[in-house]
Amino acid sequence: xxxxxxxxxxxxxxxxxxxxxxxxxxxxxxxxxxxxxxxxxxxxxxxxxxxxxxxxxxxxxxxxxxxxxxxxxxxxxxxxxxxxxxxxxxxxxxxxxxxxxxxxxxxxxxxxxxxxxxxxxxxxxxxxxxxxxxxxxxxxxxx
Length: 143
Hints:
The protein has helices at 40-56, 68-83, 91-110, 129-142, and strands at 17-19, 25-27. The protein is mostly helical.
């Protein structure tokens, strides 16, 4: 994806074409994201949640970076409240927002825009052979 102020001089092309009854031809959309399939009701509810957050904190405040663990904890609390039957606020919009914030953080970290420290979720993967060997060496030295 291109993020620059330079003029665009190229157009992505899959090489596949779709012809329309009008005679128009366009590159196919087979391998492209489909935001047109997103529920307009969910979009509206999350938009309202974002509006409320903008009033409470400021516009785009969340994009400055909130640790993933905080977003995940909030997501889980909202799931729990919804599961308990609490409808005092739009818990499902809050769940989607928190998941979106984590996805946004992951992409901004990958692009080098936000610090990797925001990805502070615990990991439960088995350590690599190298990590196990290093840990065993450290334990032997401590004895």
